[in-house]
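Prompt: Have a read of the protein record below and flag anything odd:
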Amino acid sequence: MAVVLSPVRRADAAALVAANLASRDYHAPWVSPFTDQAGFEAWFTQGVSGPNVGLVARDKRSDGIVGVLTISQIVLGTFRSDYLGYYGMVGYARRGLMTEALRQSCAHAARELGLHRLEANIQPENHASIALVRRVGFQKEGYSPRYLKIGGAWRDHERWALLLE
């Protein structure tokens, strides 16, 4: 394995802020992750409280941050589902590392969290992200007009899901 996936820790703050700042243009217009300590604290707090898990993917050789994955809005009971969010860092793009990180996060969701289903919502123009979920086995389930407000505008999304069986 070339990627090490672990739960986010407070000690990750400086490295995550720096990686997000360096990847700001790469992330646009799809996602606007935190770029300062206050933003990290808000994201971190969501990942350690409530129905959310924040994960950090690091390159095994350099220990650099490959990407961030968030398993959120976890619902257990008879549903056992969640929403999966993720983004990669520009310095590790096009090496297959986010594919490995996404596979590991799916395995974590099944084994550690006992989830049955993951759902990822992706803007239709984000071809790289759609190709990523396809490689991991997600299936397109539908289309949601004006689904999420990103960058001040309501954006359409495709709904992709993976059954963890």
